[in-house]
Amino acid sequence: MGTSLEATQAQAGAAGGGGGFAKEGCDPIKLEIFNNLFMSIAEQMGVTLQNVSYSVNIKERLDFSCALFDPEGSLIANAPHVPVHLGSMSEAVKATIATSGGLGSMKPGDVFMLNAPYNGGTHIPDVTVITPVFSESLHRATISDHHPNLLLEQAEAAGAAAEESPAKKAKKGRTASGASGASGGERPLFFVASRAHHSEIGGVTPGSMPPFSKSIEEEGVMFDGFLLIDGGTLREKETRELFLAHKYPSRNVDQNLSDLRAQVAANEVGVKELHKMVRDFTLGTVLSYMAHVQDNAEEAVRRVLDAMPAGPRSFAYDMDPDAEGQPRIQITVTVDKAQRSAVLDFTGTAKQQPTNFNAPTSIAQAAILYVFRTLVKDPIPLNAGCLKPLTIVLPEGSMVNPTYPAAVVAGNVEVSQCITDCLYGALGALAGAQGTMNNFTFGNEAGLNYYETICGGTGAGPTHPGTSAVHSHMTNTRLTDPEVLEFRFPLLVREFKIRKGSGGAGMFSGGDGIERRIEFLEEMTVSMLANRRQVAPFGLEGGESGALGHNWVERKGTARQMAHGETSSASLEGAGHRSSVVLQAGDLYCVQTPGGGGFGPKP
Q1: Which of 150, 314, 365, 483 is least crowded, fewest Cβ atoms below 10 Å from its Cβ?
Q2: For the CA atoms of 79, 83, 88, 93, what is the dihedral angle to 10 degrees?
Q3: Lowest-pLDDT range, 177-186, 408-417, 448-457, 493-502?
Q4: Cα separation, 547 vs 237, whole angstroms
């Protein structure tokens, strides 16, 4: 039998005596205080971002993440947001430091944004807004003419402005004002950042998740270390031009700007709370405990490795093939007991794909960080220390280390899920989850757009069944309430229920997927980018596979499809793991998400 998450956590705790690890000079009580203080700041940032954002994807689905970073850009703490964001945001901060000219070139009041997948980003819709944190005296002298609430008020006003006419928006455009002088040689003390999925940022299809993209250009507007706010002054004109000066520009720049203001406001909350922490504990103490929480996380992961068997353990997992390629992830985990470390080698993974099923290196790092954090029982922040005992080998030119200008939009959402399942499989810890985010987008050229990931079943483990109808692993978002969805968009949610029996059978059964049917009330381009439509979620140790997912179109006036337990939707319109169709008023888009794999032979 495999090793359960609970067993690994228990053994790791026993190996270290339980509780937090405290090196010399680190007070274990203060360590717990700072663990929670750092996480609390990130959580407060997230609450602000949700409250003042405009787009449904951020406000309702919570498709965002917030985190704190040390002066070098290493992740210190996060809120429990989206794992695929959190594990890769550190690379975005470090890339921004490099592209901006280094720490010495930054000044109080500067805010940067980045979405470049080949330089710290994940995929183009995920926009990271990064704020360097200087001393409180410099910050107050620079930001918003001593008006500390201006950015927050701007974001709140932007939510209302996004619903006004373009003419009114142009008249009411506001920018932050303030000095843009140099910092007098002071470098940033910390960084705060928020990453949010912008549901429209250009590209060949509305919603900016094109199923058939073959180059990064087709996926939307890309930028790298763009200076969004210069010394306290929002560069609105330049930002608007950035989103429009592209072969496939954003269809809703006003929404982009509104959500960017919300991200800036969230960061400002983080800045203020860090300033308060420095006042309460001194700068030296805060910096010391930023190092200590990383050391604690490192030791916690080493304890997990102590509890694992030595030697190599390999697992390979295919993704859905098509005429253009056969994506496959292969991982070999080798634990060195003497060094209390491990090598995770992706040799054997498929080459870079001609499709968009390619994942920048930050994605594999995020998936590995997530898996090993779940193996730690103690409530520590997910941070850079978790990766210190791990060596990651990502073959260049493979689908987990592609070269520009390969398309990557599915890497963040689909390849990340496959990496996670594959790693759990190698460790014998969990059967395959639904293995996809079921990325569902719709929109039109007028700027109306929506994006969601759809829940499914999780895999069973050696001591427990899977869970039904949940977002799992690398996504931690939620579905928009039907009432909100129907209020904001021209559609009706006709059906949403658990897909009974779709979890794989076993001693412990996998979780069930869901069924969802949406009727559109006007013409709309609808796209699906998914996986596990041909290759089922795997079972472990004799457990059965989860059911395949399906998606299809039912035109107005036609008979209901897939109504009597059919097992194949391949011949239906809109079927497959990649599809894009134009629906008319009265047409329905239907989705059945996969179930999770079972664990152990069925009794």
Answers
A1: 483
A2: -20
A3: 177-186
A4: 50
In this prediction, residues 122-133 reach a mean pLDDT of 96
211 confidence band (pLDDT: 50, 70, 90): very high
What pLDDT shows up at residue 557?
Answer: 86
For residues 19 and 378, the answer to whether their CB atoms sit within 8 Å is yes
Instruction: Let me know how many helices (H) and strands (E) the chain has, helices first.
Output: 14, 19
419, 345 contact by CB (below 8 A): no
Examine the pLDDT at 287 and tell me if it is beyond 60.
Answer: yes
Going 390 to 393 to 399 to 405, the CA torsion angle's sign is positive
Position 549 pLDDT exceeds 50: yes
pLDDT of residue 44: 96
Rounded distance, CA 454 to CA 460, Å? 19
pLDDT at residue number 181: 38
Alpha carbon of 501 to those of 70, 538, 544, 602: distances in Å?
47, 15, 12, 14
Write down the H helix ranges in 143-229.
Answer: 150-161, 166-172
Cβ–Cβ under 8 Å, residues 583 and 524: yes
3-state secondary structure 20-62: CCCCCCCCHHHHHHHHHHHHHHHHHHHHHHHHHCCCHHHHCCC
Concatenated DSSP letters for 241-295? HHHHSSSS--S-HHHHHHHHHHHHHHHHHHHHHHHHHHHHH-HHHHHHHHHHHHH
Q: Which one, of 434, 494, 505, 508, lies nearest residue 468 by Cα?
A: 434
Pairing of the two strands 390-393 and 341-345:
parallel
Neighbours of 549 (CB within 10 A): 31
Neighbours of 525 (CB within 10 A): 17
Task: Classify residue 64 by its DSSP letter.
Answer: E
Other beta carbons less than 10 A from residue 297's beta carbon: 31
According to DSSP, the β-strands at 226-230 and 491-499 are unpaired
Cβ proximity of 342 and 309 under 8 Å: no
Residues 6+ apart with CB under 8 A from 581: 525, 526, 527, 553, 573, 574, 589
Categorize the per-residue pLDDT at 21 as very low, low, confident or very high, splitting at 50, 70 and 90: low
Mean per-residue pLDDT of the chain: 88
Which pLDDT does position 335 carry in this prediction? 96
CA angle in degrees (0–180, nearest 5) for 218-252-487:
120
Distance in angstroms (rounded) separating the CA atoms of residues 448 and 442: 8
Query: CA 411, CA 526: separation in Å to the nearest integer?
Result: 20
Count Cα neighbours of 16 within 13 Å in the Cβ-side half-sphere: 27
Cβ contacts of 167 within 8 Å, gap of 6 or more: none
- Take residue 36 and report the two structure tokens written for it: 């929670």
Task: Please list, in sequence order, all residues whose beta carbon lies within 8 angstroms of the beta carbon of residue 245, skipping any fewer than 6 positions away.
Answer: none
C-alpha–C-alpha distance, residues 153 and 176, integer Å: 10
Q: pLDDT digits over 191-209, tens only?
A: 999 999 999 999 999 999 9
**Length of the chain, please?**
603
Alpha carbon distance, N-terminus to C-terminus of the chain: 15
Read off the pTM. 0.88
